[in-house]
Prior knowledge:
The structure is a single chain. The protein is about 80% helix and about 0% strand. It is an all-alpha fold and about 400 residues long. The longest helix has about 50 residues, at about 175-220.
Amino acid sequence: MEGFIQVLTGTQQPLSAVTMVMFLIGLDVRSYRRKTCFETSRTYCFYQKFIFVLWLIYFAHVLATIIGNEIISRIGINSIISRKLPEIIAFLVWAVLMTRRKDISILLHDLYQLGIIFNKEFRPLWINLGAFVSIITPLMSWSSIYLTFGEDDCKSLMTYYSLNFYYAPEGKNCRIIMGLNFFYHVATYTLPTTVAVTYVIICHFLSDLLKLHARRGSKRADSLCYKFEYNYIRNYLMVYEYIIKALKSLERTLSLPIFLIEVCDCMGIFYGFVKLDSIGKFSLQRSYVESHFLKITFVSLRALVSYLCVSFAASSIHDASKNAKDVQEEMLKRILVSEQKNDSKGMFLLFVAHNGPPFTLSAWGFFNFTKGTVLATAGSILTYSLLMLQIAK
């Protein structure tokens, strides 16, 4: 068992439980040194190829249901997007990350090295909780359908997924469709949730490193017993640049997947507002919402929690970086007012480092993660939802 865990997690890599979930869903980021199947077990290589084929089949079936059931039935584009967007986003996230597996592995390795410098590790509770959330989310999504659907609902769902080509024996629809639907929910929710969890954990880890580094500089700036020599300032800023380099790698590697996930979350929140408001108003929609109430509630709540966790975790980087800039300013002032002989090289390094803006993560450049932006976006979603509800009336 120990050897199995080592093969899954790789060597000297943080987030082992989360990367194990990624491996099981078809994204192998265990070690950036592993480039070919000859460098790992043939069994695990075959497993990854098998999952790769399943992902292609999954996406082909998604497109088939869109063409066969949605477009031919002349359902509105808004309904198509609300139904199929999570599935399309899940495939796009997988496709993007498949091209960036090496970058993710290098990022995790760099984070491990940063942890050594600061003598700080990822919190095991966060890692295990993140892996648990990644696994339990698709199970809860599947259960929200399984617990509320009757035989007629299962028959309708069976017809939908089979593109009207297959009909199960009477009374067997739920047993068959729930087994197949389980794998559908695993593909739709596991990887986006795992990526979001990984992003949140990394953001909090790097934010803690920035705060710890700033506290060390602030402590030295507050003490009159220390002189700011060039070597100390150089080493201090070098460590700061290591953290910024890791943040830039995080931005370059995961900003697009996070953007896709955030778009899906915003649509999920809006979808919940619109559908739940239909209860008691339109008879056709009321019957649909009542039979899908648990599913709609889960989708909207999951989207809200995911959006808030990702956004606030990413915005904490901006706050921590701003605090680090403030400490650099204090150090610069301390040197200027000091009666000791000033070090011009050290002052110049501090000035250059402080002169740049605080580092801010973004969703693929479309919007930056700051607390103001997070609240503004949430307010915009709420306002737009209320506007659409008023128009529908």
